[in-house]
Amino acid sequence: MTMSLSMNDEKPETGIKLTEQQLRVRRARSIAIAVSLGVLVILFYIVTLVKGPGVLNRPL
Amino acid sequence: MSVTLSRAEPSIAGVGDYVALLKPRVMSLVVFTAFVGLLIAPGHLHPVIAFTALLCIAVGAGAAGALNMWYDADIDARMTRTEERPIPAGRVAPGEALAFGVTLAVFAVVVLGLLVNVVAAALLALTIAFYVFVYTMWLKRSTPQNIVIGGAAGALPPVIGWAAATGGIAIEPVLLFLIIFFWTPPHFWALSLYRTEDYARAGVPMLPVVAGEAETRRQILLYTLVLAPLGAAPWFLGYTGPLYGAVAVAAGAVIVALALRVRGERNGHAASKRMFAFSILYLFLLFATLLVDRVAGGLSGHFAA
Fold first, then answer.
1. Contact criterion met (CB < 8 Å) for B15 and A22
2. The whole model's pTM is what?
3. How far apart are CA B92 and CA B83, in angstroms?
4. CA dist., res. B278 & res. B261, Å (int)
5. Average pLDDT value over all residues in chain A
6. Topology at the third CATH level for domain B16-169
7. ipTM above 0.85, yes or no
8. Which residues of chain B, if any, have pLDDT below 50?
């Protein structure tokens, strides 16, 4: 087998080409993950305000 | 020479498929019973902390549901009732469901422990572990007592709610645990009576598959005869007012009457279907009345003071 690639040769396209549906559901999943993480951040922020700065420093 | 790399197909799972993995209907019952456990507990819990506790319990229950669907995908594919679930339908890969379930379970327990208290977090971890390891992986495929023992996982949420509010456990949440524990077998056996072929095809040893319809009908009646007085026990023992007592006694009489009809049924499954439908209403009525009793009691106490 011989392999010769010059600078001008076009590289074959690699990777997976997503369909319209796959792109759509991936975007929806990404938004759902972002919203979940946002809710978690806000929750920790509010609970920290409610419980005071010693939120992690308490007896078991 | 050509090398073909096999790649995993890109996921086609939508957000709705991941929501379905959480078993939202089961989750709603879990959240409701946990809410009742939390609200009837003595003392005052800040609404934000109460919300956090319920959110963690809901996510933990959902995680257990996802892990159950991951492990039981082979069974689900053989049953009419479950063949359209995301994994057997091919919309979610098993590995995705496993990762989703484990991630949510860890998050739910850790957040509950950090933001609410460690006792509630430990109980949530126990509930998830019991449902996944004891019920799903062990009992479900090996014994007709699967839902009897496994029902403990579904009965724990009000205890977690109480623990979230108080940091401990008392007789009242244990009574709620016992009510759900004894409610679970007649509820599921009534369903399994008219889904026997489904369970048999999937190889799940539900009671009607293993012991036959007559024995299942007898067991439904026996458990219901224990359930009805247990349902009224919070009133007998003086934890609730007469409103709860009246509802629990009346609903208990109805469910026993339905169980007697199931016992006497020879042809068809009309009585079993009615029993299954009413059992859901029964549990809802009891817990909703507990809430009303608590709120009304709290209000009357407030005005009396």
1. no
2. 0.88
3. 13
4. 13
5. 79
6. Tetracycline Repressor; domain 2 (1.10.357)
7. no
8. 1-6, 301-305
